[in-house]
Design a protein that fits this description.
Helix content: over 70%
Strand content: under 5%
Structural class: mainly alpha
Number of helices: 4
Distance between the termini: 36 Å
Length: about 80
């Protein structure tokens, strides 16, 4: 359970600066696409490295999405 929490928090934290970046670039541009998807391989590597199966992928997607949204809102508040 601690591993799932750690991976979820990692997904959120990694996506905060990416959400900030995403909010600052033109929508549907290459930079926008990269900002959304850059964390996916990193989170996949950490998930497989710690040996957690794919059942928690929806949770990780939720936390990654939260990081993107919060990062974008922080950029907009600036």
């Amino acid at each position: 359970m601690q591993t799932v929490i750690l991976l979820s928090v990692l997904a959120l934290i990694v996506n905060l600066p990416l959400g900030w970046w995403r909010a600052s670039v033109k929508k549907f541009s290459l930079s926008w696409f990269i900002a959304i998807h850059l964390a996916v391989p990193l989170i996949f590597l950490f998930r497989t490295w710690v040996g957690v199966n794919g059942i928690i992928i929806p949770v990780l997607i939720l936390f990654a999405l939260m990081g993107q949204v919060i990062g974008g809102k922080l950029y907009a508040a600036d």
